[in-house]
Amino acid sequence: MYIEKFSRIGFILASAGSAVGLGNIWKFPYMAGENGGGAFVLVYLFTVIVIGFSIMLAEMLIGYLGRGDTVSSFENLAPAKSKKLWRFAGFQAITALLIMSFYSVVIGWIINYIFISMTALPDSFEAAKNTFNTMVSTNIATQLFYHTVAFVLITYVVNRGIKGGIEKANLVLMPALMLIFLGMLFYAFTLDGFSQAYTFLFSADWSKINSHIIIIAIGHAFFTLSLGMGAIMTYSASLPEKSNILKSAVWVAFLDTAIALVAGLVLFTFVFHNGAEPSQGPGLVFISLPAAFHSIGDSGVFFAVLFFLALAFAGFTSAVSLLEPMVQFAIDKFNWTRLKASVMMGLSFYLIGIVALLSNTADFGEALTFGSRNVFDTLDHVTTAIMLPLAGLVMAVFVGYVVDKSKMEAVLKKPLGFAFELWYFSLRYIVPVAMVIVALSLMGLF
Fold this sequence. Notes:
By secondary structure, the protein is an all-alpha fold. It is built from 19 helices and two strands.
């Protein structure tokens, strides 16, 4: 089995690109502001280190030592008598593909908003709300067009392979994303809303921290690092021999968190400076911010285009990482060419994405709603609340109880030192309990 290799910087940027996604940029800042500000940030950072980072190292180890796709890596590391059982742990590639199906739709929205920012930036909160709702509920043709654009671009890059596609794209897009946000941050320093944004994000209100908020922080620490989707595992299989995966993991976690915080300061500075509504999720990005950018004047168009361009870069680098695990699996399992695997897996998420897209519309929404959730929301809920925590639990159990400890010591004992045993203890006893609690909480059972 031949697996193309990343360079070290290519791996770090690709993994960070996978972690720095759409939800990370707008969801984390809002969660921090509404749940204790600086207090939540500290709880989040603690859970990143104790839980998120532990699982990240575990996922990297499975890929690095297993040297295969998500299924083959588990099989290669499992004892002979349980190989058939552990191959099912590779379901993470399917999880990534399902996430990709609705993620691509959102990327399409963002690409559309780049052009909306250039031509017809909404002049008020109500106008912005109407623009977004019209696009999602009635403008099917526009959504299909941009969903198709996203599908073509993502499939093209993945088809180019590790060195010529994924690494090359991340070497351009990740530095560009960081430069855009840093430039916008410097401008944000000059606005009146910066101090309010800083307070919103970092002023510690410990009275808001309770068991529910801690569970939210644990869940987000896990999800924000792009764990349980097979991306980090698949990328790690492409690391050169004798790579320092601890150092790589630290860089990925640092870049992921730093970009989220910088993006939060930028977003909320514009929101507060112009008296816009700091609403949650898509409302913040597609409603509050466009109205805020318009109120700045001529420069508002420039910053709106820059922001949605950066957001598109973040979404694109994550999307590429979501498609790669299933492509690598198809190449290994069915001996497909990379072109055939990329096109077939790309068409899979594209077609499911069309159904998810239509489920948000007025014409097809009712027919594509089952119970209280339409297809779009169901895909989001099933992957987030069930499949991702389950993947984290499976990886923790596999590395903590199945993989030969001496193999892990050979890779991590020297760089981790005495902390190796702490990491191992966390993986065996803390992470599994945390993942079960997070899953039960997200499913509304805890």
